[in-house]
UniProtKB/TrEMBL annotation:
GO terms for cellular component: plasma membrane; sperm flagellum. It is a multi-pass membrane protein. This is Calcium-transporting ATPase. The gene is ATP2B4. One of its GO terms (biological process) is regulation of cytosolic calcium ion concentration. Interacts with PDZD11. Interacts with SLC35G1 and STIM1. Interacts with calmodulin. It is found in: Cell projection, Cilium, Flagellum membrane; Membrane.
Length: 1194
């Protein structure tokens, strides 16, 4: 390989800064990267004189990389740009205020307030006329009448407060979300060679001219040209829509594009375009450039702005034509929203309908009452000069009706959900859970099953060779090098050093006396550690045989289950080293080395004997067994592509047993899961004996249990029919007892997860969480309700398919996620219990008060204050309750458990009865009890009465003490338990109480309040505290005895889904309710629509399908970031669906044949390397990203 010295010239030796310093310009490189395969090669060879020459033009060394000189790097950034796409502007606070103002309820209130204001200034000549039905005002009332404008102004002021609070909440949520995204962004690093050393560099730091190391599972962060590659296959579907993997090699197609996934192999590339000049960047820029045309689309899909490209890797596999999509829409099965979202939407719609009905009836009754009393009973004529006064009355009635609606609609619901989720996500970060999709946090609380990987999750992923079988001898400790024949020792050292990824290596410990650091694939590190333990140096071997000298590499993938490397022998001919799972490699061996290093025949009976005496004893101790073998080719060059003939007739060198100790904290965590009613299953690529041994150590299986441990082959035999199709009934017989699935392929994992989720056996549907770290775990991670990817060992593809990233790869973090998830669910139930009590009481009081006294005892402004307490403040107080261990002592709620249990319904109704009794007593007998003037039937602009002030004050104080009751929802007696652990709760309750004192004492006319005496205050407080005592009485009534209580806020049953969701892409529970009632305008009625934008910013991990573009080859035909997809009416792309699943083994489905079930591989993907093309399709079709469907007309 050429290595001219000028390659490594430091760029700071140049003085000028124009582009001519480098041998090519940005535009030339951009043009070059737009070419494909042979066109690209021709351009490189003709225009640049080959890849090496291009490297020298870019002043980089293909082996050593850039020097890392800061001046040089800075200059490269100036000339070629940074690897960063400038984020879009975030929404300003004013824009968010404007959005909050769009809420229909608020608009109606504003209009009513303005009409009220205008009319209050209008003084018609007939005002004093008794014929108008108004009592004649006394002189002292004159001043009060002048203050009629105050009510309108106060309503407007309250609206402003509500809007500002909403906008502030939206703004802070967006800010938090951006913070979360930038955290994910910072964590994405890439291997780059600088100054001869491989370093992990943040993606944004990569510059043109860098030499990047690429390996399976990587997501390419920039465009580049291949310098050296081994068996490299790339999934370019995110850019081209082609699902077939593209083989990359120097001779055929060396062009590598940003945003594509490495599915197999490894290699090095020189970076030629970064940021906005890369292929992905160009597309993003086009998005910005055509903003005018895109305006409509933007409205359809408000994007999560401001997230740099590195975090939003391109989506894959959506490049099929839109016509095809439209054809398929009819067949697609339905994808549900998150469990909680579905329940909440249904509940909110039902409450909203009830509120609307109540407010309409209220207004109607008030108007009828007024009309009948004035024009029928008193037989007054309708005088023209009285019209404005009548209108003023009607406006007042209208305002009362609106306030009933305002109180009825639970606007605080989305706010409570958002606050609760955002708070949990922030806290979960500290518990090593990086949440990518917010709803995953809440879904985790419902989890009934966890399918976990073994390596790295349950075990420490610190592998060491502890036993070996070499030359007919089973060593139970590492043998000394003298005990081995030099020839055999040499074969072991070469077989391991050469036949493993050169990115795997052992580094000295960070701290004195610590363990050596393992970098790269842990199994390979264990083998390299074995070489070191044999007092040999693998570096020397690798220096002698650098990566460029490797003749052919068969990298590890889930089909091969082994890795082989071919080198040329100095004496001529070739030698191939192989390693892999012992059963697989031994099946391909027909010879073995004996004690003296001589080659002996190795027959089937010898193999069975070896499995019985060596491999099974190792596996039963929980060791993973790896076989090392080799083969010489001396008779000319074989056909390397004919793998089945190459990988046979091997000679076995050794079998080693690798130990991966169980994490000490895992058995305790699994015991917690069992107590919490969660079943843990282990899905691993390891041997069944190893898997069973580890599962026993972890406590997943206990001796004497009636549980199944199956191998992938056996599992497939039991669940498939003669045609090889998976049958749900057969699967239903197996999964409830299955605890360990060994030697499983990624297909098996996906089949199991899908089978459990789709199963209808048992009293409730299962909610499944899955852990995965390999590229091939993508399908299962996507299919699962919650996918956990490993932050340390996980590949980019796995992380992108996941919902939560475990930053410490530890199973105990999953248990913490369960705790937080259950806490979110409980927080929202607490809030609902509080909110619905206020709703029921306020609506009934306003309604009956209006009907009996023609005036609501609670005025519009007071209602808005109550609304603020119960919405914003209560959601803040109750949604931030910290979780307790007791959450893990009950069974999961499951999908169909209603949000409002019978105990909660008992509390809601019980407290409503208390509050209504008190308020009606005060309304109708309060003036006699307190010996004050009655406030009933007061004239239009009369001053506030003490009577109604006491009612308002008592009402608010009862809510305040009921907020403390609402802290417990399972019927616990001690409502104060742990109250001081939640400072937010204490400060909200205290703050509300102080505000209430200020409002009553100094609120005056705007709040329709007047000062109260000390004894009146004590009475109000006494009645409020009565709530706590009443709560104790309610909790003594056994819920079982109250058979009439109904639950509310159910999940959707399967029958409802199929019946109602014909033709819907995604089941939107609200839509169903609306269709039934045809109340289409309800969308605007509650602020849920406004606030849900924020919630959806977190929730929506599904993409909207694109509208048919004007130009079928348009490069704009793709989606912006799905996290902020808002408009519900646009159809969504569902995840992998049942129909496609059924067609999996039908090869005629062309490029969209997903999982090939033809040959069921019984073994495992051990290193979780790459995945065969049949499976990647799914990874692709699920990945979550901005460029969602893109056809390039190249």
């Amino acid at each position: 390989m050429t290595n001219p010295t000028e390659h490594a010239l430091p760029a700071n030796s140049m003085v000028e800064s124009h582009e001519g310093d480098f041998g090519c310009t940005v535009m030339e490189l951009r043009k070059l990267m737009e070419l494909r395969s042979s066109d690209g090669i021709d351009q490189i060879n003709v225009h640049y004189g080959g890849v090496m020459n291009l490297c020298s033009r870019l002043k980089t060394n293909p082996v050593e990389g850039l020097s890392g000189n800061p001046t040089d790097l800075e200059k490269r950034k100036q000339v070629f740009g940074q690897n960063f796409i400038p984020p879009k502007k975030a929404k300003t606070f004013l824009e968010l205020v404007w959005e909050a103002l769009q809420d229909v309820t608020l608009i109606i209130l504003e209009i009513a307030a303005i009409i009220s204001l205008v009319l209050s200034f209008y003084r018609p000549p007939g005002e004093e006329n008794e014929q108008c039905g108004l009592p004649v005002s006394s002189p002292e009332d004159e001043g009060e009448a002048e203050a009629g404008w105050i009510e309108g102004a106060a309503i407007l002021f309250s609206v402003i407060i509500v809007v500002l609070v909403t906008a502030f909440n939206d703004w802070s949520k967006e800010k938090q979300f951006r913070g979360l995204q930038s955290r994910i962004e910072k964590e994405q690093k890439f291997s780059v060679i600088r100054n001869g050393h491989i370093i992990q560099l943040p993606v944004a730091e990569i510059v043109v001219g860098d030499i990047a190391q690429i390996k399976y599972g990587d997501l390419l962060p920039a465009d580049g040209i291949l310098i050296q590659g081994n068996d490299l296959k790339i999934d370019e579907s995110s850019l081209t829509g082609e699902s077939d993997h593209v083989k990359k090699s120097l001779e055929r197609d060396p062009m590598l594009l940003s945003g594509t996934h490495v599915m197999e192999g490894s290699g090095r590339m020189v970076v030629t375009a970064v940021g906005i000049n890369s292929q992905t960047g160009i597309i993003f820029t086009l998005l910005g450039a055509s903003e005018g045309e895109e305006e409509e689309k933007k409205k359809k899909a408000k994007t999560q702005d401001g997230v740099a490209l590195e975090i939003q890797p391109l989506n894959s596999q959506e490049g099929i034509d839109n016509e095809e999509k439209e054809k398929k829409v009819t067949k697609l099965p339905k994808k549900e929203k998150s469990v909680l979202q579905g329940k909440l939407t249904r509940l909110a719609v039902q409450i909203g309908k009830a509120g609307l009905l109540m407010s309409a009836i209220t207004v109607l009754i008030l108007i009828l009452y007024f009309v009948i009393e004035n024009f029928v009973i008193h037989r007054r004529p309708w005088l023209a000069e009285c019209t404005p006064i009548y209108i003023q009355y009607f406006v007042k009635f209208f305002i009362i009706g609106i306030t009933v609606l305002v109180v009825a609609v639970p606007e605080g619901l989305p706010l409570a959900v958002t606050i609760s989720l955002a708070y949990s996500v922030k806290k979960m970060m500290k518990d090593n859970n990086l949440v990518r999709h917010l709803d995953a946090c809440e879904t985790m609380g419902n989890a009934t099953a966890i399918c976990s990987d073994k390596t790295g999750t349950l075990t420490m992923n610190r592998m060491t060779v502890v036993q070996a079988y070499i030359g007919d001898t089973h060593y139970h400790q590492i043998p000394s090098p003298d005990a081995l024949v030099p020839k055999v020792l040499d074969l072991i050292v070469n077989g391991i050093s050469i036949n493993s990824a050169y990115t795997s290596k052992i580094l000295p410990p960070e701290k004195e006396g610590g363990l050596p650091r393992q970098v790269g694939n842990k199994t390979e590190c264990a083998l390299l550690g074995f070489v070191t333990d044999l007092k040999q140096d693998y570096h020397a071997v690798r220096n002698e045989v650098p990566e460029e000298k490797l003749y052919k590499v068969y990298t590890f993938n889930s089909v091969r289950k082994s890795m082989s490397t071919v080198i040329e022998k100095p004496s001529g001919g070739y030698r191939m080293y192989s390693k892999g799972a012992s059963e697989i490699i031994l099946r391909k061996c027909n010879r073995i080395l004996d004690k003296k290093g001589e080659v002996m025949p190795f027959k089937n009976k010898d193999r069975d004997e070896m499995v019985r005496t060596v491999i099974e004893p190792m596996a039963s101790q929980g060791l993973r067994t790896i076989c090392i073998a080799y083969r010489d080719f001396n008779d000319g060059e074989p056909t390397w592509d004919n793998e089945s003939e190459i990988l046979t007739e091997l000679t076995c060198i050794a079998v080693v047993g690798i130990e991966d100790p169980v994490r000490p904290e895992v058995p305790e965590a699994i015991a917690k899961c069992k107590r919490a009613g969660i079943t843990v299953r282990m899905v691993t690529g390891d041997n069944i004996n190893t898997a069973r041994a580890i599962a026993t150590k972890c406590g997943i299986v206990t001796p004497g249990d009636d549980f199944l441990c199956l191998e992938g082959k056996e599992f497939n035999r039991l669940i498939r029919n003669e045609k090889g199709e998976v049958e749900q009934e057969k699967l239903d017989k197996i999964w409830p007892k299955l605890r360990v699935l060994a030697r499983s392929s990624p297909t098996d994992k996906h089949t199991l997860v899908k089978g459990i989720i789709d199963s209808t056996v048992g009293e409730q549907r299962q909610v499944v969480a899955v852990t995965g770290d390999g590229t091939n775990d993508g399908p299962a991670l996507k299919k699962a309700d919650v996918g956990f990817a490993m932050g340390i060992a996980g590949t980019d593809v796995a992380k992108e398919a996941s919902d939560i990233i475990l930053t410490d790869d530890n199973f105990t973090s999953i248990v913490k996620a369960v705790m937080w998830g259950r806490n979110v669910y409980d927080s929202i139930s607490k809030f609902l219990q509080f909110q619905l009590t206020v709703n029921v009481v306020a609506v009934i009081v306003a309604f009956t008060g209006a009907c009996i006294t023609q005036d609501s005892p609670l005025k519009a402004v007071q209602m808005l204050w109550v609304n603020l307490i119960m919405d914003t403040f209560a959601s803040l107080a109750l949604a931030t309750e910290p979780p307790t261990e007791s959450l893990l002592k009950r069974r999961p709620y499951g999908r169909n458990k209603p949000l409002i249990s019978r105990t909660m319904m008992k509390n809601i109704l019980g407290h409503s009865v208390y509050q209504l009794t008190v308020i009606f007593f005060l309304v109708f007998a309060g003036e006699r009890f307190f010996d004050i003037d009655s406030g009933r039937k007061a004239p239009l602009h009369s001053p506030p009465s003490q009577h109604y002030t006491i009612i308002f004050n008592t009402f608010v104080l009862m809510q305040l003490f009921n907020e403390i009751n609402s802290r417990k929802i399972h019927g616990e007696r001690n409502v104060f338990a742990g109250i001081f652990r939640n400072l937010i709760f204490c400060s909200v309750v205290l703050g509300t109480f102080i505000s209430q004192i200020l409002i009553v004492e100094f609120g005056g006319k705007p709040f329709s309040c007047t000062k109260l005496t000390l004894s009146q205050w004590f009475w109000c407080l006494f009645i409020g505290i009565g709530e706590l005592l009443w709560g104790q009485i309610i909790s003594t009534i056994p819920t079982q005895s109250l058979k009439f209580l109904k639950e509310a806020g159910h999940g959707t049953t399967k029958e409802e889904i199929t019946k109602d969701a014909e033709g819907l892409d995604e089941i939107d529970h609200a839509e169903m309710e609306l269709r039934r009632g045809q109340i289409l305008w309800f969308r605007g009625l509650n602020r849920i629509q406004t606030q849900i934008k924020v919630v959806k910013a977190f929730h929506s991990s599904l993409h909207e399908s694109i509208q048919k573009p004007k130009n079928q080859n348009s490069i704009h035909n793709f989606m912006t970031h799905p996290e902020f997809a808002i408009d519900e009416e646009v159809p969504r792309t569902p995840l992998l669906d049942e129909h496609e699943e059924e067609n999996l083994d039908n090869p005629t489905s062309g490029t969209r044949a997903l999982l090939l079930d033809g040959e069921v591989t019984p073994y495992a993907n051990k290193n979780n390397n790459a995945v065969d093309c049949s499976q990647v399709q799914i990874v692709a079709s699920h990945s979550d990203s901005p460029l969602h469907s893109l056809e390039t007309s190249v």
